[in-house]
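Q: what sequence does this backbone want?
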């Protein structure tokens, strides 16, 4: 997730704009230049300075008293849940509920087969709702109220950022003005499941390459941008602007607007195994960002004003994303289904079952309402941490680029799950 998103394995990195300052995951809304510039040239100005949308203030609902956690709170079940208010009493717009019900219907096959790492549900718990949603013709809010109950995970204190699907100038072939390579996954990039070697390392994976008899680190961003992968036939396209492409990588997927006006959609294919460094936080810590510059748009503006230093700063993020062309609907989230603007949200699977509805009540009005957890993100970790997906286009870019909202979150679970949890 697309999301300032850090590399997320299944989600095609749709990336995450996780936080404005972390700038790590599900947000990369950069306005493509009217013209284009070769990679060897410094980034050029994109015209009038792009600004994040002004937040619409809202008063969030109060959270409920937090339950006493069981153990270290490694997942939602251990952290504890409390029953929330009746779903019918929540302020959910009909249009948001309709979109959420459609996304829930899409997610049902995954809900019925995925292992729920949150510990809150069993696959069979979702069966009644998934059967009913196939032919439901009534009110969408009534659907959720009939088959589900709202619960609060832990203290319920939520933080939400935003991500979107960026569109930048690109070409399928290298030509003047389109010289920033978009690489597919190299064949010598190796995934290692460390859990196969030690039970203590279950769930942990690393990536690298084999040199002689050793597994070593894969090339970092600086090496790749200096040409370490050139000449191997890995280029699937070429971007026009290195700054724009950098933030498309942060999102994990996006669109290339081709010279003939057509669009080529690309999605996450893998990552080089290097740790992600959020350049927004790095720049803020160094005092490089002035007042009002901590949004994605402000960061982009600074990079364009300081091209040489900006290039070096971007290379401090050693993580590099590889892409594949997407020809079906998308972008795809971690469940393997297309994420939907203003409906899909990225969450931590240890605290939210993928496919479950999420209700947000925040201090910013835009993200308030019902969402469906269909994605994940490398920077989206912990309970009540969400990354809202806003789709594509100018509106999506302006909202996602400055999204940072705090408030309260509830998760909708099947009534059977809530009863089993004793809530």
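A:
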């Amino acid at each position: 997730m697309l999301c300032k998103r850090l590399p997320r394995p299944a989600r095609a990195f749709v990336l995450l704009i996780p936080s404005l300052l972390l700038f790590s995951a599900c947000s990369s809304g950069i306005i493509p230049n009217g013209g284009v510039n070769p990679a060897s040239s410094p980034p050029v100005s994109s015209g009038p300075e792009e600004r994040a949308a002004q937040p619409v203030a809202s008063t969030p609902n109060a959270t409920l008293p937090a339950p006493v956690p069981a153990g270290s709170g490694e997942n939602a079940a251990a952290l504890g849940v409390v029953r929330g208010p009746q779903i019918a009493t929540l302020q959910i717009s009909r249009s948001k509920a309709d979109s959420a019900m459609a996304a829930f219907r899409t997610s049902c096959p995954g809900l019925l087969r995925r292992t729920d790492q949150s510990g809150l549900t069993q696959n069979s718990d979702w069966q009644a709702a998934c059967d009913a949603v196939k032919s439901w013709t009534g009110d969408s809010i009534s659907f959720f109220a009939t088959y589900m109950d709202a619960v609060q995970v832990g203290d319920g204190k939520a933080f939400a950022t935003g991500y979107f699907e960026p569109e930048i100038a690109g070409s399928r072939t290298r030509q003047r003005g389109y010289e920033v390579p978009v690489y597919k996954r190299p064949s010598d990039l190796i995934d290692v499941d460390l859990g196969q070697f030690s039970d203590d390392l279950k769930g942990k994976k690393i990536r690298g390459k084999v040199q002689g008899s050793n597994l070593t680190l894969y090339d970092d961003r600086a090496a790749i941008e200096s040409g370490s992968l050139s000449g191997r036939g890995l280029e699937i396209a070429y971007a026009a602007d290195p700054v724009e492409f950098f933030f498309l990588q942060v999102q994990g997927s996006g669109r290339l607007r081709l010279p003939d006006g057509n669009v080529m959609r690309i999605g996450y294919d893998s990552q080089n195994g290097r740790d992600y460094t959020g350049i927004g936080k790095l720049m803020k810590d160094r005092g490089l960002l002035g007042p009002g510059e901590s949004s994605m748009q402000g960061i982009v503006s600074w990079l364009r004003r300081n091209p040489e230093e900006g290039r070096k700063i971007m290379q401090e993020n050693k993580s590099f994303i590889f892409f594949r062309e997407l020809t079906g609907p998308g972008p795809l989230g971690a469940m393997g289904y297309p994420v939907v603007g203003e409906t899909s949200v990225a969450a931590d699977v240890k605290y939210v079952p993928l496919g479950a509805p999420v209700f947000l009540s925040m201090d910013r009005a835009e993200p308030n309402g019902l969402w469906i957890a269909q994605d994940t993100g490398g920077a989206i970790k912990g309970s009540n941490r969400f990354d809202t997906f806003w789709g594509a286009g100018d509106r999506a870019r302006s909202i996602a680029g400055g999204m940072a909202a705090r408030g309260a979150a509830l998760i909708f679970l099947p009534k059977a799950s809530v009863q089993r949890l004793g809530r």
